[in-house]
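Researcher: We plan to redesign the surface later, but first we want a full-length starting point. Tokens attached.
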């Protein structure tokens, strides 16, 4: 994790199974990470308020309120990437987690090597804009300015929105390829999500989230348009600058 930042070495593990929690922590710490463990939604919130983390491993059945709300809250304030783990393997469960703000989804039982690899992958995607920029890379289209380093988009009216690493990676792919039709496989490759739990609707879910955030009418999108049978098209001219 060297070079990504000190906080990236600290991970919050939110898991209610004490045996699994202990084994996960042992594996992460054996590979150079510092793990904080919690077993409830309330404890997770408390830890996230008090400390900075480079990633969150979140069990989808954590006791308390719907734990996916945590992913949504972190998304809203530009928090660390979230890897959801769950024994639920249906597409609907995966889509729900992604839609709530998760960056990846791993089905139990899982191997610890895969868990670690996925965690590193979402951290790399989250950190890449800051690592690549000497300053802040800003992309301008329509009434929006996208700050890649800050993981947010700012509207000319003065308000801004946060984005997950997955949303930002997909938006970056569109910004780098305006007025070009991109199919799902190309988008997955451009966002480097081949190491994630990829399924047909991964891109569709992320596109839907971007439309809800950026489009004035998500049901009649003007920026990210669907080209039936081919993929998606980002229709706006893009101007880049560095501050």
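Model: Full-length starting sequence:
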């Amino acid at each position: 994790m060297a070079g990504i930042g000190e906080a990236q070495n600290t991970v919050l593990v939110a898991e209610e199974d004490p045996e699994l929690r202990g084994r996960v922590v042992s594996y992460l710490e054996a590979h150079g990470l510092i793990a904080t463990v919690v077993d409830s939604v309330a404890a997770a919130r408390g830890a996230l308020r008090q400390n900075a983390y480079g990633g969150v491993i979140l069990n989808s059945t954590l006791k308390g309120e719907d734990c996916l709300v945590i992913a949504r809250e972190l998304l809203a304030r530009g928090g660390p990437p979230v890897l959801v783990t769950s024994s639920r393997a249906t597409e609907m469960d995966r889509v729900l987690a992604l839609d709530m703000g998760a960056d990846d989804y791993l089905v139990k039982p899982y191997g610890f090597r895969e868990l670690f690899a996925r965690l590193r992958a979402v951290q790399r995607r989250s950190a890449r804009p800051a690592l690549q920029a000497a300053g802040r890379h800003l992309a301008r289209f329509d009434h929006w300015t996208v700050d890649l380093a800050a993981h947010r988009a700012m509207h000319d009216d003065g308000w801004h929105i946060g984005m997950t690493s997955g949303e930002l990676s997909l938006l970056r792919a569109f910004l780098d390829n305006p007025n070009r039709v991109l199919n799902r496989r190309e988008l997955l490759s451009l966002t480097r999500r081949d190491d994630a739990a990829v399924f047909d609707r991964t891109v569709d879910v992320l596109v839907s989230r971007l439309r809800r955030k950026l489009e004035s009418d998500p049901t009649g999108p003007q920026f990210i348009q669907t080209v039936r049978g081919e993929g998606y098209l980002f229709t706006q001219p893009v101007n880049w600058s560095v501050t």
